[in-house]
Amino acid sequence: MKNLTAILFLALLFVAQNTQAWSGAGHQVIAAEAYRQLSPALQAKMGEILKSHPDYEKWKESFTGDSANLDLDMFIFMRASTWPDEIRRRKSEYNHPKWHYVDYPLKPPQFPVEPGPDPTDDILFGIGQCENVLSDAKASALDRAAYLSWLIHLVGDIHMPLHCCSLFTGAYPTGDRGGNSFYIKPATKGIALHSFWDGLLGTSGKPQAHLNYAIQIEAEHTRKSLPELKKDKTPKDWSLESRGIAVEKAYLHGELKGGTDKDTAVELPEGYSKAAKVVAEKQAALAGYRLSDEIQKWVK
Q1: Ranges assigned E (strand) in 87-195
Q2: What is the pLDDT of residues 126-145, one digit of tens each?
Q3: Domains in the chain: boundaries
């Protein structure tokens, strides 16, 4: 049974290995929570904006309508959360590969805070561009829909700790690319640390399951229970918050052992997976609340 569990766990994580973000399931969980936080008027506004999205008709056709508490507008909002990852494999004028992360250098043992290397082409820049478009009443309907999709996605990404760092050590003189080159062994096979964290909110499932998970996370992490919501209010704050979590929880202050490929992957220490899951769910809660707040602030 233990071996079967390990195999299933790895199969789920495999889906996330090339996404370089929370899995599609994770993004939809965060989007569902954010949507639930919006007023009915703003929910309707989201629906109207996204009707101009280039993939709207495709998403609409895939909506089954078999759930009483998941309507079309919520479903489209959730689907929009994964679009920026999907167009990485297409030729699209809206594809911005470097917007998904900010590579703050992590240099043990002191881990001094240093700026990211691409301030005009990283996740902070991307969020700013999205907000500029959404606050511009003269922006085209197509642009507003596309950059709403991007905002939903990027607020999720910035709360994934390994999207806000790159570890520099003797083994990684040019950085480990947010754990993409740092291999660990959660079960029987080696995978990238980044991929492991990607899958912590799930990697598959139906929209109703993602909504149910969002409701669970929201119940377990109320706004009142999260002092970070009052302390860290800007995207820059959130990115540094995630950087700190990467140091403390992902790399264990530099004590986490890893390999440079699948063959040299190192087993995770006892309790690591469970602790990481707790962190991921709290980050998802923060992302959902903050996304709803950003929408209220910027969507005109």
Answers
A1: 105-106, 166-167, 183-185, 191-192
A2: 999 999 999 999 999 999 99
A3: 2-90+97-298
pLDDT tens per residue across span 278-287 = 999 999 999 9
Q: Which amino acid is at 217?
A: I
Confidence bin at 164 (pLDDT 50/70/90): very high
Q: Which fold has domain 2-90+97-298?
A: P1 Nuclease (1.10.575)
Cα distances (angstroms) measured from residue 153 to each of 5, 21, 63, 273? 30, 9, 20, 24
Q: For residue range 183-208, what is the model confidence (pLDDT) as tens digits?
A: 999 988 999 999 999 999 999 899 99
Task: Kindly provide the b/e burial profile for residues 207-239, where b requires at least 16 CB atoms within 10 angstroms of the residue's own CB.
Answer: bbebbbbbeebbeebeeeebebeeebeebeebb
N- to C-terminal Cα distance for the chain?
54
Residue among 124, 113, 126, 153 nearest 20 (CA): 153
Give the phi and the psi of residue 270 in degrees, each rounded to 5. -60, 135
What is d(CA 293, CA 245) in angstroms, rounded to the nearest whole number? 22
The token pair that represents 286 in the structure block: 């923060």
